[in-house]
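Q: I'm writing up a methods section and want to include an example of the input and output format. Could you take the sequence below and give the corresponding predicted structure tokens, formatted cleanly so I can copy it straight into the document?
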Amino acid sequence: MKNLLIPILIFAGISMNAIGQEKSSKELKGDKYYFNYSFDKSIDLYNRANQLTPEGQRNLAVSYSNIDKTVESEEAYLKLINTGKEIVPEDYYSYSMILKSNGKYAESQKWMDRFIELKPNDLRVKDYLSHKASLPELKKDFGKYKITNLNINSEALDFGTSYYKDQIVFASTRSTPRMIVRKYNWTGKPFWDIYVSDVDGGQLKSPVIFDKSMNGKLHDGPVSFNHDGTQIAYTKNNYDHKRKDEVIELQIWLSSFKDDQWTDPEPFVLNNVKYSVGQPFLTSDGRTMYFTSDMPGGFGGTDIYRITRNAAGVWGKAENLGNQINTEGDEMFPFLEQKSNSFFFSSNGRFGLGGLDMFTSVMNETGFGPATNMGSPLNTQYDDFALIINDKMNKGYFSSSRPGGKGGDDIYAFDVLIPDIIEDVDFIVKAPLNIPYKPIIREYFPLRNYIFFKAGTTEIPARYVLLKKDQVRDFKEDQLESIASLDVHARSARQMTVYYNILNILGDRMGKNPSSSIKLVGSSAQGPEKARKMAESCKNYLVDVFDINPSRILVEGRIKPKIPSEKVGGKLELELLREEDERVSIESATPALLNQFYSGNESMPFEPVQIVNGQENSVDGFATFNVAGAEKTLRSWALKLEGENGEVQHFGPFTQDMVEIDQRSILGDNLKQNYKVTMTGQTKSGAVITKESNLQLELLPPITSPEVTRFSIIFEFDDSRSISIYEKYLTDVVVPKITSGGIVIIHGFTDVIGEVEHNRKLSIARATEVKNIIEKGLSNAGINDVKLDVQGFGEDVDTAPFENLLPERHFYNRTVIIDIKNN
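A: Here is the clean output for your methods example:
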């Protein structure tokens, strides 16, 4: 319903002075009626003008839209756009939305794409891109709801229901016996007043004026009550103050029921002549109020806010509900069902079927879950808004301008025929056996600076860990390795767990180093455009989730990578690209991001992540946290461990059903500790599940054993030559870790590409090259009593660090592993 928008929204559109084109007298007069909401008169005058300025043509399109003549509005917008003069991005968005209201979804998508090109970071764009594929599902009626057009509807506008004891209160423009009937310019109907109606089965009956003292000269309603009906908050026009631009702002007024009558209404603390507030919703205790406003500082259009008052009735600071709810469009009509924490609102800024659509989000401890469009038949291509629902979540009401009603806006009842499935998971915590410490390995694990993609898609593969925005604060680079146990044959899932967090590590490091910048270079056999989109997928993730400024990330697309994956030294070109060449390479000249010895070289890895673990630990050395059903039910889950000493640790977020965390990573310097474990997960529908358990950990006294320090050197395909930058790394970083009398074990490995014997010799050559550089460094340091053990295992599947199943594992198997055991 267009005239439900806070009046100042008429000015949220672009108002521009014509450049080089003078307005005619008819257009000027049309402007006067336009800004006074007399849209039928403004339309008449605009159409009678010989020629309109772009601003006048825009006003004509908006005028048609505001009185629900969407076909005429579509024609007016098209004429504006075809002029090519003074077009602003919002024109493309408005035209796209009008096309959608007329059921032209494919055409709407075309103009939305134009808007996306101009405003790629707009919240409406991000929501559109995330949900546009769901259009067929939104349009389908799955039989979940039964909808009833109520008998009390009239040719007037009836809308905005609210629960009041066992009755329903709503706003309506229906006429009542009075001396003077004032009419609203926008609709040509009376101003809306507040009515109350009894509930009779599935219908409302006998509507009457709620309270004459609350119905003034202009708009009054919609309203909201606390649970026992002793407090009311309602919207009304501020007709005591008329602004020079002829906008009369909306305000919220409050009253209490005392001594069998409503007290004199008092103005809400945020009422202001410079902006509007309205559409209040009071929580059951009356202490918290949600409301709609176009006050400065929001995301744009109208936003939904929340405010709470103390026991003395003093209101605190209003809180914008944030971008999980609000967009640059219009969000309005908040309603919270408090037993389920289900939050409902209406929006024309989020992806929907057209006009205002109704959305739901689950409120949790940290904010709101993802907004979900409620779909057909609740939503249509017309305005659907102001949903309320009972505490059993099986009946409710909403308002709509859809065809088939009795007036411009009607009130509909709905029954939920198929209730939402209650989502739940089981949470089981298992402590490891009481085992002694084992020798530990401190590994400096290099991060290969590639993200590998599948042919034919530009989406980041699912094996890479992608966080939600609200999970970023729990991300800790130094805890990634402790969520997976060792596999057989010394293969470790730890290293892959670290690598698959490559984008999160990058986002975290860029956040901690605000002056850093990167370049994402996509390469694809399907062409530079596809390669560039691959790079943009990575960029969008860093921008959206980690709030990295887009200007810090450059993107490029090419057919072949700068360093092809399967040629000696990576410097020669291939006639056919390999699977490993379908990738995005990360380049940077910032030492804090890439290894300081490798900065600026595209082929070199990230600054290593330090992994500390017990190589000889059995699986019984790990505490097991099993969230049965997580992969099916949850978007993600995280752990909070509270020790009896007051220390709090966080692990996660995770997406799999079960994780194992090394108990030494949990205990730290302690040998024994009891923990309260809290698992918090977010369901795929946005709900929050919390489970609690206990965990007791105890270690035997530590065994005295030397620590092993491990380094890995990654080679390019079929390469055995440690070029100068490797020599510097080995000399300046690795050699200083070796002490007199120590043992250095150097093992070479390859992938499975090539002949077995060739790969065996190649692995020996790699290990020998590393040994030669280390020997030279030790000699220069005056150390000559270190034992060096050199072996090459080739592609031996029993000893290879990783299984050769994916491109990244091929790269990580082209390695030499250096283990340093000092006395």
